[in-house]
Amino acid sequence: MADVRSYAIVTAAYWAFTLTDGALRMLVLLHFHSLGYTPLDLAFLFGLYEFMGVVTNFLGGWVGARFGLRVTLFAGIALQVLALLMLSAVDPHWAVALSVVYVMVAQGLSGIAKDLTKMSAKSALKVVVGEAGCGLLFRWVALLTGSKNALKGVGFFLGGALLAWVGFQSALWGMAGVLVAVLASAVVSLRADLGKAKARVRGRDLFSKTREINWLSAARVFLFASRDVWFVVGVPIYLYSWLGWSFDEVGAFMAAWVIGYGVVQAAVPRVLSGTKNAESGARAAKLWGIFLFLVPAALAATMATVPSAGLLIGGLFIFAVVLAINSALHSYLIVAYSDVDKVALNVGFYYMANAMGRLGGTLLSGLVFQMAGLSASLWVSAVMVAAAVLFTLPLAARPRPSAREIVGKDVMP
Would you say 72 and 190 are in contact if contact means Cβ atoms under 8 Å apart? Predict the structure, then answer.
């Protein structure tokens, strides 16, 4: 019962953090675009954010296993407060080069914060659920990930709306104040040993991964690069500059996309009710990966010949649905393939791969869109999905534990 209470506290803090993270992305993108930054400049603003996610996920899992998830959660929220306060000090009269470097550093801190907080929440889930069967772990992972993405979508809308209503600086101050209150509440409520490994964690454990985790992590690199290559810069700037949408309209669309993505993600266990173990999850991941490839390929081909705002919006929402199914399956598999004692290490390693994909996708989003336009960004997305599918092909079921090993580990919520 104490584990469930601790997990609820971690999840609530993660949800609050997610709102500010989504709002911050939209605030930075639209504010600096309005100041005249090019798509490539904007991509670089997010470059260090994603790069620090790579480093944080690689080392954060070891820190979480060694010192407990309480440490990583508190550090993540505190760093996000610092990043928000740093960004509030940006002066629009600074030279572009100085602004880019300064914002990159602040965004880098935010990237560390995001991945420390995310790793804490997802690792805490394995601690609570353990090796439970009958699809319980799949349902809980999908619910956490889906709710996170829905809230991030709300954050996108919040960011666009706050920029239009109260301005850049006031929005940042308000979000920092909310997170300080969240951090204070978590400090007095969360037990100290949550997620701490019972056995000694060694440095080589950072690299010691099973075959399934390595293949799944490689697939994750390309899965999320396939989204961010059009999502980070291309589509928002296309809607604002080419279609003439306002800040809050762009924020509302991005919010609706991510909320829809999150809702579908949370519902995946009901849609794929036959997925109850790693074996069935691996089969489903391969099939739905092929479906995902078809969406950006068809959309890119159509947009290149008969560009249409309605077609673009509809196609991107279809992409959201199929990507949500893929992402939910992958997120379940990484937890299912992990032992309870090393889940923080494996989740950290996996989300390091996720951050690598987002870094590559982010930089390509600005570069490809600036050089060749939105259709080219969608073609690159299709190629990346194809690569992700190839890396899921070797996935197989792990040997099932015996009934004796499972007895006593099924912790029901």
Answer: no
DSSP-assigned states of every residue in 172-186:
HHHHHHHHHHHHHHH
Confidence (pTM): 0.73
Q: Is the Cα torsion angle 134, 403, 281, 413 positive or negative in sign?
A: positive
- Domains annotated on the chain, with CATH: 2-197+205-397 (1.20.1250.20)
Pair 389, 290: CB distance under 8 Å: yes
Q: How far apart are CA 385 and CA 383, in angstroms?
A: 5
Q: For residue 313, what are the contacts with CB-CB under 8 A and spacing of at least 6?
A: 253
19: nearest Cα among 156, 201, 126, 213: 156
SS3 121: helix
Residue 137 is predicted with a pLDDT of 66
Q: Return d(Cα 62, Cα 34) in angstroms, integer.
A: 41
- State the chain's mean pLDDT as an integer: 81
Whole-number Å distance between alpha carbons of 394 and 321: 25
